[in-house]
Amino acid sequence: MSYEAPEPFAWNYCGTCGAPLVMTHDGQSVQPHCAPCRRFFYRNPVPAACCFVRRGKDELLFTQRAVEPCKGEWTLPGGFIELGETAEEAVLRELLEETNLRASTVELLGVSTKQSPNVGAVMVLGFVVINWSGEEAMRPDTDAIDLRFFPRHARPTVPFSVHRELLALYDARDGHHDKKWLK
Ligand SMILES: [Zn+2]
């Protein structure tokens, strides 16, 4: 079965009261608005986080996706940031859920944003995971087929341009990195 991305979503009705939204000027631009709730419905990039888990000299951890989009391809572990958690908490939660690895410290590497048919646009924060542990108990979760460390020369081609951009940033920083990136 081939995967077809859904149409980008658009707000038509209020998610709270169900009233049809009316395009209304908010003082800066025209946006969908619910008059009964006095609320504008903005569309913004959805924040996500991904992990750079390094082993040895130049190996990075990749996960093989068990779900669409890009099922079967290798990507960086990560996921969407949930309400009520910080970006740092999100990346540590995703690391534990997806790999069973534990860590307490992450360092922001950079940010990459891309238009996405699934969510409108996604903004991915890349974090280097410092002092992780638990490799003997590492296992992929239900969304992944496999987990593997790849040396730099044998890295898989990742399907998401945000990950490619962050990998390029990682490599650029890698030559000058602080010793704390090393495990
Ligand atoms: Zn409403």
Beta-strand share of residues? 25-35%
Query: At CATH's second level, what is the architecture of the largest domain?
Result: Alpha-Beta Complex
CATH topology of the largest domain: Nucleoside Triphosphate Pyrophosphohydrolase
For the sheet with most strands, the description reads:
4 strands, mixed
Task: State the low-pLDDT regions, or none.
Answer: none
Instruction: Calculate Rg over CA atoms.
Output: 19 Å
For the secondary structure, the number of strands is 11
**What is the number of helices?**
2
Q: Choose one word for the global shape.
A: elongated
- Succession of helices and strands: EEEEEEEEHEEEH
CATH class of the largest domain: Alpha Beta
As laid out across the biggest beta sheet, the strand order is 8-4-10-9
Overall tally of domains:
2
* C-alpha end-to-end distance: 41 Å
- Look at the structure and name the CATH superfamily of the largest domain: Nucleoside Triphosphate Pyrophosphohydrolase
**How much helix, percentage-wise, in residues?**
10-25%
Please tell me the overall pLDDT. 90
Give me the secondary-structure category.
Answer: alpha+beta
The bound ligands are: zinc ion
Tell me what the structure shows.
Helices cover 15% and strands 34% of the residues. It is an alpha+beta fold. It folds into two domains: 11-43; 46-181, Nucleoside Triphosphate Pyrophosphohydrolase (Alpha-Beta Complex), CATH 3.90.79.10. The strands form three sheets. It has a four-stranded mixed sheet with strand order 8-4-10-9, with helices on both faces. Strands 5, 6, 7 and 11 form a four-stranded antiparallel sheet that branches. The radius of gyration is 19 Å and the shape is elongated. The relative contact order is 0.20. The mean pLDDT is 90. Bound molecules: zinc ion (ZN).
